[in-house]
Amino acid sequence: MRLVPIFVVAIFVLSILFGGWQAYQHFNLLNPLKRNLQQVAGVQTVNISTGSPDLVQIQLGPFDKLKNGDLQQTYHAISTQIENRLGTNVSLQISDNHEGPLTQVFESSFVFYIQEGIAKQNYTQMVSQVAELAKKDGIDARLTMDSQDIYIQLAKGNSYLYRVIPYGNRQGGAST
Fold first, then answer.
1. Largest Cα–Cα separation, the chain
2. Are 159 and 171 in contact (CB under 8 A)?
3. In the beta sheet, which residues pair with residue 163?
4. Which of the 8 DSSP states describes residue 84?
5. Per-position pLDDT tens, the chain of length 176
6. Which of 56, 129, 134, 148 could tie 168 with a disulfide, CB 3.0–4.6 Å?
7. Distance between CA atoms of 65 and 98, rounded to whole angstroms?
């Protein structure tokens, strides 16, 4: 037996199989997912990177562009589509149009009330403290929750900030 022809044929077959897998993944998995995600209200851009885990980066528009103006509904629509197409080993990153001052206010003030509310499980006080702080700083704020995450929307002028903060036990699915 000659090893060189066998080796060349093996490399050729593996190249075809790998190329076929890449084409399938690109045309039948990622492109349809990207199109579906771009149709979700509020989504401006979508970038998908495959790996371990897969990474989906979503740029969201202002409050009025979101599904019913709500980050929680928009996030659920996005994560459901991702989970249906890619499974549960996915990292989801939501980006927004925040300016330095809005991020600074969030990280220096809001995050403490939120973390304290999570730690003490005193969610009603957390919501009222965030609303009071937002009103004081002239920021439009919306804070909603489900069984796993807290969804924070802040806006001031043309800047807006979105955060999804987990507080429950994750059972799988897309995460941020």
1. 82
2. no
3. 152
4. H
5. 688 888 999 999 999 998 887 777 777 778 888 999 999 999 999 998 887 778 999 999 998 899 888 999 999 999 999 998 888 888 899 998 877 788 888 999 899 999 999 999 899 999 999 999 999 999 999 999 998 999 999 999 889 999 999 986 544 444 44
6. 148
7. 16
Gap between the Cα atoms of 174 and 124, Å rounded? 27
Handedness of CA 149, 140, 40, 91 (dihedral sign): negative
Answer yes or no: are the C-beta atoms of 91 and 56 closer than 8 Å.
yes
Tokens of 145: 């929750």
167's tokens:
């507080």
Per DSSP bridges, beta strands 54-60 and 149-156 are unpaired
**Given the structure tokens 């300016």, which residue do they identify?**
99
Vertex 151 angle, CA 114 and 29, to 5°: 140
- Report the distance separating Cα 117 and Cα 3, nearest Å: 68
User: pTM here?
Assistant: 0.79
Alpha carbon distance 91, 50 (integer Å): 10
Closest CA to 40 of 71, 70, 77: 77
